[in-house]
Design a protein that fits this description.
The protein is α/β, with parallel strands linked by helices. 31% of the residues lie in helices and 19% in strands. The protein has a domain of 162 residues: Rossmann fold (3-Layer(aba) Sandwich). Strand 6 and strand 7 form a beta hairpin. Helix 2 crosses helix 3.
Amino acid sequence: MNASLNDKKEQEILVCPDAKSVALEAAATFVRLATDSIRERGRFTAALSGGSTPRSLFEILATPHWEKQIEWKKVHLFWGDERYVPDAYPESNFRMTLETLLSRVPVPPVNVHRIKTELAPAEAAAENYETEIARFFGTAPGQFPSFDLVFLGMGTNAHTASLFPHSNAIHETSRLVVAEYVAEVRMWRITMTAPLLNAAKNVIFLISGADKASVLRDVLFGDHDPERKPAQLIRPARGRLTWIIDSAAAAQLPPESYRLLSSRT
């Protein structure tokens, strides 16, 4: 067992009955953290992710019941990673968020901090985003600002954001954002780095599906090998790490390692 990962008091594994329940739990957490952050600091900063579970989450947040619970004018949205494609392309994480959430809630356009994939080359887009993040938070070079919330997913190869196994990006220690051509997916990716993700106050993995069960067990309880399992790089320095997963993804985890949640409505 990898005690350094599993025994941290700041980490919690929550198991929901199904993928829809994962999205609902994530929505409730988003509302709670947004409410608390706005009350305490006057704004809420969140880095979003792509994928099917975030899509469901965004669709839920855009419904009247959930939308009215959030003071959207004080919410600032960023992206943990992006495919280096035009915003209009189906592969774009920004486009998915625009269609499912941004076009349906009253978040001011100035509060939407997208990765400008129209800039060329990809490294320029990464540098621009790094500058935008530092400017927004008012941090100096070498400092890592702290998002209130970062949502992450995990692939069947244990990648998270666009931190892929054996990539250069997983070794970055000083940059906030980097670009890299990922041969595995034959595409340029732009991603926040592990140090930036780990500076967040709350990091939440959203994981569903039986195809993730073995890799999730290996990431949480296997040997520490972030070169092969980049998701293991995510260890918030002072924040809280939460895994919200469905029962299929939790199938190979020790029952004593997680807390079961009932379905939300």
